[in-house]
Amino acid sequence: MAKRDYYEVLGVERTADDAAIKRAYRQLAKKLHPDVNPGDKEAEEKFKEVNEAYQVLSDPKKRANYDRFGHEQPGTPGSGGYGDFSGFGGGGFGGFDVEDIFSSFFGGGFGGGSRRETGPVPGADLRYDITITFEEAAKGCEKQINLVRDDICDACHGSGAKPGTNPETCKTCGGQGQVRTTSNTPFGTIQNVRTCPNCKGSGKVVTDACAKCGGRGKVRASKRRTVRIPAGIDNGQVVTIRGQGEPGERGGEAGDLLIVVTVKPHKLFKRQNYDLYLDLPLTFTQAALGTEADVPTLDKPVKFAFPEGTQPGQTFRMRGQGIQSLRGGAKGDLFVTVSVEIPKRLTDKQKEILRQFDGTVTGQEYEQKKSFFDRVKDAFGGNS
After folding, report:
1. Which domain covers residue 134, as residue numbers?
2. Where are the beta strands (DSSP E) in the chain?
3. DSSP character for 232?
4. Maximum Cα–Cα distance across the chain
5. Which of 32, 70, 27 is nearest to 49 (CA)?
6. For the segment 209-264, what is each residue's pLDDT rounded down to a tens digit?
7. Domain C-terminal end among 263, 280, 307
């Protein structure tokens, strides 16, 4: 089986930066880790695949070679030469970052080369649900929302310490952000590295907290802002506004604001992708004789010529009367399905006129009726 594209494996664009690649890797690793999926061979294979992809895309040189040559890297026989991911025994996990996995699960890792968790931490994404009308979804709109999120405290500038003071070096970890413990096991002595419980990995502790934020470095705030909903959006789709989520920590980038859109149903139209569907009633005489009728659209009524002999359930297509594509292309179409209304109460004169009309009919005027009786004749003729 051919290898999947590494960018596809991690679910990132080819233009993704290192932070996005690492973030995607961590999320997938947490989900697929063998400790979370014991005995699940499919999850184990996907876990290997994710780590293989990360080993390549997290290394600038390997990534450059992969972008240029794909899996068949020159000078490497066989399968591209990006490392051995054939199993979990012996040499470990084929060279991928064990600490990343264990730090994600257990707040630490194995001893030796563990890194401090004092680097930038990206902020969390924020979700905001919004309900708009069918017309607003079709044409686009602007909406005012009240967004409640954390903002960097303007008194301490995010340090959490009282203005004029600074956080102190954590005495528990000595500013390393991690603590080490040693355990004796049947396999030997193992050194475990965990995030410092006192400073939470920052290496610093606040002894004199900022009065405004209580030492958090952030304050909860409500802001009113305008969001633009693009024309053509559909029910359940998401508008992503970069960098408007929760702020990051230690210089990390802010998360994103995710606007989840709910579209109210329309009284007349139904939608499928960018096409609209409409049921339009015509009278018996309009359908029989043909008519030019006003057909509702999202903008204004449009004249449409229905031919004589229009049948109930017949559908007509009005090009370009649908919904604007999100990508800015041509509009979809409007499909009009005709229903024919039969009058329930007739005057004696009207009944007589219809009887006279029926007396002039030879049967050739009704295609479906003629076809039906032809099939009946053939069916019974076949049994004779």
Report:
1. 126-263
2. 108-110, 126-132, 141-152, 168-169, 178-185, 188-195, 204-205, 218-229, 238-241, 257-263, 269-272, 275-283, 291-295, 302-306, 315-318, 334-341
3. T
4. 108
5. 32
6. 999 988 888 888 888 999 999 999 999 999 999 988 888 876 778 889 999 999 99
7. 263
